[in-house]
From TrEMBL:
This is CBM20 domain-containing protein. Homodimer. The keyword ATP-binding applies. Belongs to the PEP-utilizing enzyme family. Residues 53-151 form the CBM20 domain. The keyword Mitochondrion does not apply. GO terms for molecular function: ATP binding; kinase activity; metal ion binding; starch binding. Keywords: ATP-binding, Carbohydrate metabolism, Kinase, Magnesium, Metal-binding, Nucleotide-binding, Transferase. Residues 210-229 are annotated as: Disordered. It comes from the Eukaryota.
């Protein structure tokens, strides 16, 4: 039986979105079993906010567990009773902001025995530890039980209403045994409405669905917590303001004062976040509103709301508004009441007064309406009044005919008016309110959406099987309508806008937000429909059957989901590019072509775009996690908000957003792609084998490893920029698994190859989740071009053996593993690199540049210029030419930096800083401070007139745009390639000497970045031995940039050249920008070209062409749409490029007589080379 399965304890964390920040929050048992397929999910009824499992209709129990899980996971229960699955069928819980919930209907006096379980997104079952929970039920009633994960010994208390002869009586608590029920209490004619938990779930508006408040009270009952200890700024203002603000309008006034005041301007983001959180808690009842004796009609609330709305619109319309501010502002709008004319009138909402004086209803109901609704609304309206009205409406409509039809109709009308005031109407009601403000075309689009929505709801009632197409139709209609509303809101709010126009703009804003919420529902249903077909396995099987077109609905869904994110303000240009790619790859012509051949290339291209979409989703997640947790924790603690609400605030925001559904759809499709292409999610950058303790870190930085981690370490890294030192976390790092893609030629990738450290990336969240149970345990790590294995390793090296492993290179059939135990804080064994210092003012032609006087990079550029003529006569056996060009250039040799320092009387200070940087420890920030001083000193230096004149004579035009590149004596050497380590500054001119001189000084200063200093320490180079020459070349404006490895870096196949390409300047490839390049494997002998990956960098780095444009060293970052890039769209062009690069690479490899790393670019039909160096 399920309850007797063997459990293995260990940490478990599965993330659906990287950077979610919820790892390691629990230690649980993890179990996989062969019979999991027979554990089926019970059929459930899912309403707007509740989940009900039907058994015999007697005792109703609402189970709620106060526990958060990771993204992609869910709670369920298994137990002895039929309604808990009979230990065979897991019963799912539904996620709400108050916890995970399920409603059961059990037999009278039944004894339930059950346990909570967690279902991971990979299908694993995680059981809570300890004995089974036991719950004894009474004969009748409706109850709630709140439990906590892994606390199986806690006493289970039934809280709710006991039922006697169909009538509910006082609340009872049952702990093991049922208590004696009390007699019914008389109903007071002036009693306040108390809303049972189970009744709230039947209510319709968002207020009621999310309501977590208790009964209403008057001013004498108000109690709260206002602990302002340690607070400052907006949080302090809110807490102190709320202390004196009992009712809703006063709380709104606190918000208005803060937003429009000086603090709201100086600390705008902090103010917006605190306001959004505060209003959210008010609207969910977590912060209660009470009467305080000062009576104001709802028009007071409306006037305050209008002023808040105007300020929010002003912020949204500013050119410099940040993404964070926009996202938070969108959270505030739904929390404000309406302020159209009928609500700003002197006596609004008068219908309830007439209802309270009707003669066709019982006296006690009349009194209840008068005191609980009419008087309360006209004295001090608040969100609790809408909840109370909904509860009363539910009661008077429960038994048809009990009350007069005219009364019920009138009460429903009042209810609609009240919903309108609280902006709590349905999406349809909101959209219908736009009628007077839209033109004929927009009205037609709106009506089409409502028709599609109604049609979908009709199909739901009829139980239609083929639901995907109508869901897509509705989502498409929604997207068209939302795009029009968003466009209309772009123009901003005019300063002279009338009150009527402002009120209508609020309706537009809330309608647009409502459409966003409904798109979440549609996307969720679409994903469920795909899962019902078989999920990722079904998609992969359709490809095998030649039915690639079956993917089109999923790709169209993802395209529209991404479009929703753009309409919400999340990187609009990026969203448009992703949408265009998805639609292009799913176009009928493309699909039919791939149905014939090369489905692997089709799948890899899709993978690139879908990974790009998932990266966008992670941007939102990271943003939310940066915005909320700290502010929420402080404000929640100060106001006494329940801990679970505070802890799950950011998670709730993410789960309720469209981005959550986009991420789920991305995960589904990526899993299907991996099944299609046969990949495992790993990308090997450096093959090798090693053993060590598996440790997860956020980044590869000093101090990220625990002090106890002394032996060999395998890093599981959450995030890397690509410019880190592979051993920055510790010299005992022997392997790295990075949890996202990375260009192979980033500095980090190159250093891994130089250090012979096994290095892989993995974009499969399920693979990463499977590694986490191995954390802090010894593992064996094997990485090759064919597979990656990470498994438990029970015989790690003993401490007594560690000294013998120092500086030892271990080779076996799977590749090398390098273990170095010396600390980075210590200076390694010094190496001397001699240079030849040129006289002051010297400028060299590239033909005069040598490694001793100008560095290897400049010297090789001179050699390439000579080889370019020879290459014109060479071609491959297939007739592909080896022709290439080299841009003109000159070199500022070694010694020029020191001459500048001497001229400015800074050489003595420079030498003193160099002496300090040699031994500065990593800890305490001393190394960072010394490096910063060095860079600042060098960056202040100026070029001599002699150097500027030398550059301008004989070759380089004063008006031509140039690039200033590093050519250090510690780069482009065997074992020290330093790719991307030092600066290159494009877009400068000799005619602008000040900006040109600053660019040269910036290149000099890059010799002393923290990572450059650490790199030399690892290589054993003294800091005083490092010197920098500067290579000045004509700036090219490439369509594509590339790096070639003339021998495959993965499997060391000498017949295969591997090319990495990116749009625009080559800095994208070396800088470690998130994303992947095009990766081609090109056979140098038979001309065959295989595509290994497609590019998905979000942006290209470019420079504006034209002599009149400014040349200040700045670059442009432009979003790339790969649907218009021939290298992605045209397989013939891709093959031609691969063959041309293979021919050039083979030519240079033959000349230098060793494998080469080659950098260059493509402009039209021409290939330019800018560098060649020994391949590590």
């Amino acid at each position: 039986m399920a309850r007797s399965m063997v459990q293995e304890c260990g940490p478990m964390a599965c993330l659906g979105l990287r950077g979610s920040g919820f790892e390691g929050l629990r230690k649980v048992g993890r179990v996989q079993f062969a019979g999991i397929d027979r554990v089926k999910t019970l059929t459930v009824q899912r309403g707007a906010s509740n989940l009900v499992v039907r058994c015999e209709k007697k005792v109703k129990v609402r189970l709620r567990i106060d526990h958060q899980v990771q993204f992609g996971e869910s709670h369920a229960i298994l137990g002895s009773s039929q309604c808990t699955g009979a230990w065979q069928e897991r019963v799912p819980l539904h996620w709400t902001e108050s916890g995970w919930v399920v409603e059961l209907e059990a037999n009278p006096q039944e004894k339930l025995e059950y346990k909570h379980i967690i279902i991971t997104h990979s299908g694993d079952v995680v059981w809570e530890g300890g004995p089974n929970r036991t719950l004894s039920l009474p004969s009748e009633g409706e109850f709630e039980v709140v439990t906590h994960w892994d606390c199986t010994h806690e006493e289970l208390q039934l809280q709710g209403e006991h039922v006697v002869n169909g009538s509910s009586v006082a609340h009872v608590d049952v702990a093991g045994e049922q208590e004696q029920a009390q007699a019914p209490q008389p109903v007071s004619s002036q009693r306040e409405l108390e809303i049972p938990v189970h009744r709230l779930e039947e209510l319709s508006t968002s207020f009621a669905q999310q309501w977590q408040g208790g009964p209403r009270g008057d001013g004498n009952e108000r109690a709260g917590k206002w602990d302002s200890t340690g607070l400052d700024g907006p949080a302090l203002e809110i807490v102190e303001g709320d202390r004196g603000a009992s009712n809703w309008w006063r709380k709104l006034e606190v918000v208005r004062t803060l937003l429009t005041g000086e603090l709201g301007t100086k600390e705008r983001l902090k103010t917006l976040v605190n306001v959004a959180v505060y209003l959210k808690w008010i609207n969910t009842g977590q912060i209660a509103c009470f009467e305080d004796g000062q009576h104001y009609r709802p028009n007071k609330h409306a006037e305050i709301s209008r002023r808040i709305f105007v300020e929010l619109e002003r912020i949204s319309g500013e050119k410099g508004v940040s993404l964070r501010e926009l996202l938070v502002v969108r959270k505030i709008h739904p929390c404000l009441p309406a302020f159209k004319a009928e609500f700003t009138a002197s006596v609004p909402l008068t219908r309830i007064r007439d209802i309270a004086h009707r003669n066709d209803i019982p006296q006690d109901l009349k009194q209840e309406i008068k005191h609980a609704l009419q008087n309360k609304l006209h004295r001090s309206a608040g969100p609790e009044d809408l909840v109370a009205t909904e509860a009363l409406l539910t009661r008077v409509t429960k038994t048809p005919g009990e009350y007069s039809e005219a009364f019920v109709k009138e009460f429903k009308t009042f209810y609609s008016e009240l919903k309108d005031f609280f902006n709590a109407g349905s999406l349809t009601e909101q959209l219908e309110g736009l009628g007077p403000s839209i033109d004929k075309d927009t009205k037609a689009i709106l009506e089409h959406f409502l028709w599609s929505k109604d049609k979908l709801e009709t199909l739901d009632k009829a139980g239609g099987a083929n639901i995907i197409e109508p869901l897509l139709d509705t989502l498409h209609a929604l997207t068209n309508l939302r795009r029009i509303l968003a466009k209309g809101l772009e123009s901003g709010l005019r300063n002279d806008a009338s009150d009527e126009a402002i009120a209508m703009r609020q309706k537009w804003r809330l309608s647009e937000l409502g459409l966003e919420d409904y798109s979440f529902v549609l996307l969720s249903r679409i994903i469920n429909a795909f899962d019902a077909k078989g999920g990722a396995s079904w998609f992969a099987e359709e490809v095998k059957n030649g039915k690639v077109g079956q993917w089109t609905p999923a790709l169209a869904s993802l395209a529209m989901g991404v479009q929703q994110l753009g309409l919400s303000g999340l990187h609009l240009a990026e969203c448009i590019a992703i949408k265009n790619e998805l639609l292009a790859w799913s176009a009928s012509g493309v699909v039919s072509a791939f149905e014939v051949k090369d489905t692997k290339a089709w799948a890899l291209r899709l993978k690139a775009t879908i990974n790009r979409a998932r990266r966008l989703a992670e941007t939102y997640t990271d943003t939310v996690l940066q915005i909320y947790p700290n502010y929420v924790e402080k404000l929640g603690k100060a106001l006494g908000i329940p801990e679970n609400t505070v802890r799950t605030y950011a998670e709730a925001d993410i789960r309720a957003s469209v981005v959550f559904q986009v991420a789920k759809l991305c995960s589904l499709l990526l899993k299907a792609i991996r099944a299609t292409v046969g990949g495992d999610g790993f990308d090997t950058i450096m093959p090798g084998r090693s053993a060590g303790l598996l440790v997860e870190v956020d980044r590869i930085v000093p101090g990220s490893l625990p002090s106890s981690a002394n032996g060999p370490i395998i890093l599981l890294v959450k995030r890397a920029d690509g410019d880190e030192e592979v051993k920055a976390a510790g010299s005992n790092v022997t392997g790295v698994v990075l949890q996202h893609e990375l260009p192979h030629l980033s500095h980090l990738g190159v250093r891994a190859r130089q250090e012979k450290i096994a290095f892989v990336t993995c974009d499969d969240e399920e693979r990463i989740a499977a590694l986490r149970p191995l954390l802090n345990r010894p593992v064996e790590f094997v990485a090759s071009s064919e597979f990656v294995h990470i498994r438990p390793y029970e015989s790690p090296p003993k401490e007594s053996q560690e000294s013998q492993l120092k500086e030892k290179l271990v080779n076996d059939d799977q590749g090398p593993s390098f273990i170095r135990l010396a600390s980075l804080s210590k200076v390694a064994e010094p190496k001397r690199i001699s240079i030849v210092r040129s006289p002051p003012g010297t400028v060299l032609d590239l033909s005069e540049a040598t490694t001793p006087n100008s560095g290897t990079k400049a010297a090789v550029c001179g050699i390439l210029s000579g080889l370019a003529e020879e290459a014109q006569k060479v071609q491959s056996d297939q007739g592909v030419p080896a022709k290439f060009l080299v841009p003109k250039g000159k070199a500022i040799p070694f010694g020029a930096m020191e001459d500048a320092l001497e001229s400015s009387a800074s050489l003595e200070k420079f030498n003193a800083l160099i002496a300090r940087v040699e031994t500065a420890p990593l800890e305490g920030g001393e190394l960072d401070n010394v490096c910063s001083e060095l860079r600042s000193l060098v960056a202040e230096q100026t070029l001599s007139e002699a150097i500027l004149d030398g550059l301008a004579s004989g070759g380089l035009s004063k008006t031509a745009k140039l690039i200033v590149r590093s050519s250090a004596n510690v780069e482009d050497l065997e074992g020290m390639s330093a790719a991307g380590l030092y600066e290159s500054i494009p877009n400068v001119k000799l005619s602008e000497p000040e900006s040109f001189g600053k660019a040269v000084a910036q290149v000099w200063a890059s010799l002393y970045t923290r990572r450059a200093v650490l790199s030399r320490r690892v290589a054993g180079v003294l800091q005083k031995e490092a010197s920098m020459a500067v290579l000045v070349q004509e700036l090219l404006f490439p369509e594509l940039s590339f790096v070639l490895h003339t021998v495959s870096p993965i499997d060391h196949d000498k017949a295969v050249l591997q090319a990495e390409l990116a749009v625009g300047l080559g800095e994208t490839l070396a800088s470690g920008t998130r994303g992947t390049p095009w990766r081609l494997a090109c056979n140098k002998f038979d001309g065959k070209v295989m595509t290994l990956s497609f590019a998905n960098f979000s942006e290209q780095i470019a420079v504006q062409n034209g002599s009149k444009e400014s040349a200040d060293g700045s670059v442009l970052r432009q979003v790339v749409d790969y649907s218009s890039q021939p290298l992605s769209a045209d397989p013939v062009f891709r093959e031609q490029v691969g063959q041309r690069l293979a021919t050039i690479g083979f030519f240079l490899e033959q000349h230098f007589k060793e494998p080469q790393d080659i950098e260059g670019c493509i402009i039209g039909q021409d290939v330019y080379l800018v560098q060649s160096r020994p391949q590590p």
